[in-house]
Amino acid sequence: MDPWRTSIATSSATNLWIRGQAIAPLMRNATFTDAIALLHLGRLPSAGERKLLDAILIGVCDHGAGAPSCAAARLAASGNRSSISAAVAAGVLAIGDEHGGAGSTCMEMIAAGLERAKAERLTPSEAAAKTVDAAVRDHRRLPGLGHRVHTTDPRVKALFDLARAEALAGDGLLFMEALEKDASARIKPLPMNIDGALAAVLHDMGFPPPSGRFLFIVGRVAGLTAEVAEELAREKPMRITFDVAYDGIPLKNE
Predict the structure, then answer these.
(1) pTM across the whole model
(2) Which residues of the chain have pLDDT under 70?
(3) Shortest CA distance to 146 belongs to which of 99, 108, 201?
């Protein structure tokens, strides 16, 4: 049987390497965010990239106990108090296209839009307008836009301001800003959300599209562990209840 292949990590009896870098110097000199970039990009980030990645991880770490991932984690902890890993895993499993997973889909849209811009000699704004054209024609939702709570997501400006301050804002950021403006004018007010913002920034830093979802998960796990810890520390087992309205076949008495 052929061995598994990996270019990520390896070890010996006396050492451990991540992307070719010995672990002890990394532990002494790097940050956890550095390690995330090293794992996913194969290189250490610049100081500006580190700031942006930190901002993304902070921005996605928690959004309240009612967010699907946090609610799922707390519900699992309420019913199974013997396995904190199961509760955290339940929260991760609630992350998908509708919650926290749109970043990767948005990165695919940005990449396709900018590839079209290159081929047709369009500006990022013109490519964004054509993306909105297609969404309107096909009655498709645009990933990275709209939020069930925020009319303005405060995380977007914070992240984009930082990207510009660190000279890391590129065509991905311009594309998403134009997409938000055009979609809001032609469809309805659609504020950019954190998925759209992190998608633009990660694209401009050279991350591949799946990273939009991967890094949301990395950041949100920190929040999930806190939510589960609070559930176990403050609440009684099986405390989560909600009303259920039965509307099935009429009940028969024996």
Answers:
(1) 0.92
(2) none
(3) 99
